[in-house]
Design a protein that fits this description.
By secondary structure, this protein is mainly beta. It contains one helix and twelve strands; from the N terminus they run H-E-E-E-E-E-E-E-E-E-E-E-E. The chain has one domain. Helices cover about 5% and strands about 40% of the residues.
Length: about 170
């Protein structure tokens, strides 16, 4: 009888919190005049854009979980090959002319990978050479600078984990 109880038991289907899941995009900000130096972004606000309309605040300075003053982590859409965000510099300024906005579109390919029965699948992303314009600034393919963003560099096109910077933004 005890043998039957032992054989009929299954491991709990609980996904361990330490199991790697779908990684977020890691962006680090750098000084355009001194490209080796990281730089703090004053009053950064990032909102998602869906069908040309701002939908949700993804990041605001008060949310320290995803920013350490020079870096931000952003989710990418797992059901589409692009994600758009509006990056607002100096967003809390009362002087409108000091607020500067750039829209960034991230184009990528997706690959779903089975993690476990308990955790299901995770999605991995790649911004590779097959994407003609992996990052588009202000809806204009081919430009390299925006209103406050002076340059964007992909440092790791394979977004498989959150252990390294994927994109550098210079301003």
């Amino acid at each position: 009888m005890i043998g039957l109880l032992t054989l009929s038991c299954e491991k709990d289907d609980i996904c361990d919190a330490n199991t790697p899941t779908t990684p977020r995009l890691i962006i680090k900000f750098y000084d355009n005049q001194n490209p080796a130096s990281v730089r703090f972004v004053k009053d950064l606000r990032i909102t998602s854009i869906v069908d040309g309309v701002e939908k949700a605040i993804i990041f605001e300075k008060s949310n320290t979980e995803i920013l350490n003053d020079t870096m931000v982590t952003l989710p990418l859409k797992v059901n589409e090959n692009l994600t758009k965000y509006k990056f607002t510099f100096n967003s809390k300024s009362e002087i409108q002319s000091l607020i500067s906005i750039d829209d960034l579109t991230f184009n990528y390919t997706r690959k779903d990978e089975f993690v476990s029965r308990a955790c299901g699948f995770k999605t991995l992303f790649e911004m590779n050479a097959s994407n003609q314009n992996p990052i588009i600034i202000n809806e204009t393919p081919g430009i390299t600078a925006g209103n406050w963003i002076k340059g964007v560099q992909i440092t790791q096109p394979k977004i498989y984990n959150e252990n390294e910077t994927h994109i550098k933004i210079f301003f």
